[in-house]
Write a structure and sequence with these properties.
Pfam families: YtkA (PF13115). The protein contains 1 helix and 20 strands. It has 288 residues and is mostly beta strands. The chain folds into 2 domains: 50-164, Immunoglobulin-like; 174-287, Sandwich (Immunoglobulin-like).
């Protein structure tokens, strides 16, 4: 058996493990801030205050003495996550103009795979923000788990460093796989807190294809959005389809007109025709 075929089989097996975990782990309730923010949640749209970020890891580069620290907005879980890198000199001076490349990797021991991700953009005062969709949680006794490999280029010199990322199972599903017939299989991520306030909400998604060990951003589709409140037997009006914004980003609006447990149903369309063949359903806890 040739090496390319063996690699393809290993990648396919890894993806089957991912899909099994996503299907079997449906999570539970999780309370989050229910403020309806104006931004979509995509990386680089805003800079949280230092106090709002959670330290993930830090290191000091030998030779240059640069201090590099990694932060997240919440405890990391199997969903879309923004990742913030802070680079400063020994005297605390922020380092601007650095080249930063993220490469997330899930090390499962006998096999490994990457994740959909967006490269960092520079914010301000030595801060850089990128993102990743962690398509599965860490699995006990299976390799090193999730790692973030970082290439940091400053003044013509490139350093490589690795952060261990503790990824737990998301309390409420915000990333799932679905089949779209001849279009292939996709990962879709809903960028919405587990709990939101009632009313009209800007709703953002990320859509990525699955191509062996690559996850290309998928553009040129639309996502039809409908809401349902199973406990009350009704939905809501005023929802607008999520339209492609480029780089796998989609934005629409939904209206949750009363408190309670809601479902957000999506269908993928291309050129006016439905292509998704699997159900796409996200649960949302709506507060008063």
């Amino acid at each position: 058996m040739t090496r390319p075929i063996m690699k393809g089989i290993a990648v396919w097996c890894a993806l089957m493990v991912v899909m099994h975990i996503l299907i079997s782990c449906n999570g539970g309730e999780h309370q989050a801030d229910n403020t309806d923010t104006a931004d979509s949640g995509f990386a680089g749209e805003r800079m949280p205050t230092d106090e709002a970020l959670i330290p993930v890891g830090d290191t000091t580069l030998s030779g240059t003495g640069l201090q590099v620290s990694l932060f997240s907005e919440t405890a990391l879980s199997s969903r879309y996550e923004n990742l913030y890198l802070k680079v400063e000199r020994t005297d605390g001076t922020p380092v601007s103009g650095a080249g930063v490349v993220f490469s997330p990797l899930m090390d499962m021991g006998m096999m490994s795979h990457g994740a959909p991700h967006a490269q960092p953009v520079e914010l301000t005062n030595g801060w850089y923000c990128g993102s990743a969709v962690f398509i599965m949680p860490d699995v006990e006794d299976m390799g090193r788990g999730w790692l973030l490999n970082v290439a940091l280029s400053i003044e013509g010199k490139t350093d490589s460093l690795t952060f261990k990322l503790p990824i737990m199972q998301a309390a409420v599903t915000r990333t799932m796989t679905f089949d779209a017939g001849g279009e292939g299989r996709f990962f879709i991520s809903l960028l919405m807190p587990d709990s939101v306030g009632k009313g009209r909400h800007k709703t953002a998604f990320l859509l990525h294809g699955i191509d062996q060990d690559a996850f290309p951003a998928a553009d040129g589709y639309s996502i039809q959005l409908k809401t349902a409140m199973p406990g009350m037997g009704h939905g809501s009006k005023g929802n607008t389809d999520a339209l492609s914004q480029g780089s796998g980003k989609y934005e629409g609006t939904v209206d949750f007109n009363m408190p309670g447990l809601w479902e957000l149903h999506g269908k993928l369309f291309k050129d006016g025709k439905q292509v998704s063949t699997d159900p796409i359903v996200f649960k949302v806890d709506v507060t008063g």
